[in-house]
Amino acid sequence: MKINTYSPDEQKYLQILTHIANAPKTLDCYGTLPATRTPSVAIIGTRKPTAYGRETTHQLAYELALRGVVVVSGLALGVDGIAHRGALEAGGTTIAVLGCGLPRIYPSAHKGLAEEIVKKGGTILSEYKRDEEARPHYFLERNRIVSGLADAIIITEAAAKSGTLNTAAHALGQGKEIFVVPGNITSPLSAGCNQLLKQGATPITSFEDVLERISPETLQPQASLALGNTPLETEILALLKEGIRDGDELLQKTTADSSEFATTLTMMELAGSIRSLGANQWTLR
After folding, report:
1. How far apart are CA 237 and CA 245, in angstroms?
2. What's the Cα-to-Cα distance from 198 to each of 64, 152, 264, rounded to whole Å?
3. From 256's CA, which of 67, 108, 247, 285 has a CA 20 to 30 Å away?
C-alpha cells in the first residue's frame, strides 16, 4: 500500500479544510485525490439502517455520483458503507475518512470496500500517525474532516442519540448546509433526522435538491425509463418507477402468473436493471 502525505494548503481539493476549526496539518492518503476542487457531499447516518435507510442512502449516493459529485463518508458499517458502494456502482468517486492510521483499515470488515474505493479512483484519508489503532474519540474528531471536505451534508437515517449528530454539529459550525431525509415518526432511527428538521435543516426528497444548491449546472432532465427486454420487464420497470416496492403488489399489478413473474424478476436482477432490498422488496438499480 503506497501512502502519500499532503498538507491541505498545498493540495487543491483539500484546501477547503484550511478554513475549518482545528484544521489538520497533514493527511495521509491511500489512493487518488481529485486534482481540483470538485462538488462534494458527505452522506452519513446510522450503523444499523432500516430498509428505508438503505434504499434512500444508496439512491442518493448513486444519483449524485452519477453526475460527478464526490461522495464523502467514514467507511463505517451501515449508511457509510452503503454510500460508498452506491457511488462506486455509479462509476463515481468516493472518499473515506478513517478514525485510525493507515495502512490500518477500520472496520476490518470493510477492507475489501476500501480496496475497491482505491481501485476505482477514490481515496482513503487519515490524519492519524501510521498504523494508529482506532479509538472512540478519533471517530468524533474525524467527523469534522468528513463535513469539512463536503459542500453539503446529507443525513439519511439517525437516532436521537447518534454520532451522526456530532458530524451535523461540525457542519453547522463550518457553515455547511445540512440536508435530512424525513423519516417515519414512529421509527427510532428517524428520530434524530426529524429533530434536525424541526431545528431548521433542509428536507431532501431527491438528489436534485442537493444539486440545485451545490452544482446547478449538472442538473439534467431525467432520462426516460429504459424499456425492458420483454413487455413484462417494461411493465415491472414502470411500476418500480412509480414507487411500488413490494413484490406481492408488483405481481398483483402485472398480467403475469407467479412463475413467470418470479423468473422475470430473477433475470432482471441478474441483468442489473433492478436490485433486491430484501424481504421481497425491490427497487431500480
Report:
1. 11
2. 25, 18, 43
3. 285
First CA to last CA distance, the chain: 32
d(CA 49, CA 44): 11
State the total domains in the chain.
2
Answer with the one of 195, 218, 241 that is the final residue of a domain: 218
- Tell whether 275 is covered by a domain: yes
How many CB atoms lie under 10 A from the CB of residue 235? 18
In terms of DSSP bridges, do strands 123-126 and 152-155 run parallel, antiparallel, or are they unpaired? unpaired
* Bridging pattern class, strands 4-6 and 27-31: antiparallel
Instruction: Indicate the pTM of the whole model.
Output: 0.78
- Beta pairing class for 177-180 and 4-6: unpaired
Helices assigned H by DSSP within the chain:
51-66, 79-89, 111-119, 136-149, 163-173, 191-198, 207-214, 231-241, 247-253, 258-271
Span 77-116, pLDDT tens digits: 999 999 999 999 999 999 999 999 999 999 999 999 999 9
**CA nearest 235: which of 264, 263, 272, 259?**
264
- Cell numbers 481515496: residue: 123
